[in-house]
Amino acid sequence: MSAIGILAGGGRLPLLVADTVIARGGRVHIVALEGDADPQVARFPHTWVNIGAFGRMLAALRTAGAHELVIAGGIRRPDLRRVRPDWGLVRRIGTVAGMLAGGDNAVLSQVVRVFEQEGFSVRGAHEVAPDLLAPAGRIGAVPLPEPARADADLAFALMAALAPLDAGQAAVVAGGQVLAIEGAEGTDAMLQRVAEVVPAAGVPRGVLVKGPKRGQDLRVDMPAVGPRTIDGVAAAGLAGLVLEAGGVLMLDREEAVRAADARGITIAGVAPGPRALAGVPGPRSARLVGRHRPRPRERADLQKGLEAALCLAPFR
To answer: What is the pLDDT of residue 259?
Structure first.
């Protein structure tokens, strides 16, 4: 039986993927990036590599008999003084240089392409560990307050409108005001900004909405939430967390749900496409998908949201 290779960055996702594969009777070999991967990778067959040692990565995967590869976990921008390139990287320097152009989606697509050129089938974490995906419907015990439903719909509409700009994987909306749009800083830092903004703005409790951008390569960049996300939602004074069902990974789900229930925070999954929370249709602004062209009022809603985001929570 061939092993599934896991290129592991930081966080618990690589460990959860490995546990799931083994629980299903499979084998894994983790190629762990020095300075990023969790030391607990030692529980599994593994090889530690410097981020510049591309040739060593390939050799470790091939020695383990891995034909499929999952790229999981966060990777910090490396300190160039600590990158130790091997010949495998040097001989592909032209390809690596080309990967630095474009947004996150372009870079990640290039990473996938490089491994595919080496004969690996790159699969998403959700493909080998589907139990980690957020389901549709209420996930915790707390129902979403009625006013927060419209906020969630507006957030989804805003994210859909921003997708062509390779931005907007998450947003926070409260009382019809867009308090924040996720930038390069990530969800946790965005929630810290909201925690500072909400008391000053005097807005009602809202929601954090998270889902993949249109065109995002979910094999290497699927959104994820976990217990730390619930901590951030609570600190920001929000009513709930709304996820695109089947498009967001839930890490340590039981722990996250317990934490949310204890704090009176709802967690809900919404099917992709025109959104409706718990069977209640959202406003027309939530339907900015596919070939739909926004009507004047919808455009005004988006404009208002963008202005609020820029005034209340600017990117930094």
So the answer is: 97
Backbone angles phi and psi of 204, in degrees to 5: -70, 170
Give pLDDT tens digits for 119-168: 999 999 999 999 999 999 999 999 988 888 889 999 999 988 887 776 77
Q: What percent of the chain has pLDDT over 70?
A: 72
* Mean pLDDT of the 12-25 span: 95
Q: Which DSSP string corresponds to the chain?
A: -PEEEEEE-BSSHHHHHHHHHHHTT--EEEEEETTTS-GGGGGSSEEEE-TT-HHHHHHHHHHTTEEEEEEESB-PPP-GGG----HHHHTTHHHHHHHTSS-HHHHHHHHHHHHHHTT-EEE-HHHH-GGGBPPSEE-SSSPPPHHHHHHHHHHHHHHHHHGGGT--SEEEEETTEEEEE--TT-HHHHHHHHHHHHHHHTPPP-EEEE-PPTT--TTT---EE-HHHHHHHHHTT-SEEEEETTSSEETTHHHHHHHHHHHT-EEEEE-SSS-EETTEE--GGGG--TTPPPPHHHHHHHHHHHHHHHHHS---
Residues ≥6 apart with Cβ < 8 Å to 55: 86, 87, 88, 89
What's this model's pTM, rounded to 2 decimal places? 0.76
List pLDDT tens digits, range 222-261. Answer: 899 999 999 999 999 999 999 999 999 999 999 999 999 9
